[in-house]
Amino acid sequence: MTRIEFNTLVLRQSSSLKLYALHFTKDSDDANDLVQDTLLKAITYYNKFKEGTNLKGWLYTIMKNTFINNYRRLVKVNNVVIQSDDILPANLLYSAASNNAEGKFVLEDINQALSNLSEEYYTPFTMYFEGYKYHEIAEELKIPIGTVKTRIHVARKLLKGQLKDYSAGRTGKVVYED
């Protein structure tokens, strides 16, 4: 197939490509840009197309990959550059340097809570935390796997109770309750 024949076949697919692009972008102008990028890449990489294969599928794959790459690029740029001229007080937390001393106190509290666990709960919990599988812990300690799961569950509950002062810890912010 000649390059002119290929270009003609590719251009005939532009209306179906537009519909496919709308599924990704949900915006007509962005869909047109995506179709244009797809057509440009298809024509540029004409020699990569194998005659006799599914042209529409090949074009859809180019479009999907182009959309994904553009999206990743946009996310990366938005993470690096703040697009707002105003830095709100609520956002200062994310731009401020953190004090590692607070983390040291938290770690000490966690270690204290772990040391308060009895040996029957401490050993399976720490082994699980280090990456051992339930069956490996059961074999090592020579106890049933159900017992291992129960002891790990109980250890979690005990630790959660001892560390309840850090109730907002899941959000990344430590809250001390009086």
UniProtKB/TrEMBL annotation:
CDD domains: Sigma70_r4 (cd06171). It comes from the Bacteria. One of its GO terms (molecular function) is sigma factor activity. Residues 108-159 form the RNA polymerase sigma factor 70 region 4 type domain. Residues 17-74 form the RNA polymerase sigma-70 region domain. One of its GO terms (biological process) is DNA-templated transcription initiation. Keywords: Sigma factor, Transcription, Transcription regulation. The keyword Transcription applies. InterPro entries: RNA_pol_sigma-70-like, RNA_pol_sigma-70_dom, RNA_pol_sigma70_r2, RNA_pol_sigma70_r4_t2, RNA_pol_sigma_r2, RNA_pol_sigma_r3/r4-like, WH-like_DNA-bd_sf. The keyword Transcription regulation applies. Pfam families: Sigma70_r2 (PF04542), Sigma70_r4_2 (PF08281). Belongs to the sigma-70 factor family. ECF subfamily. This is RNA polymerase subunit sigma.
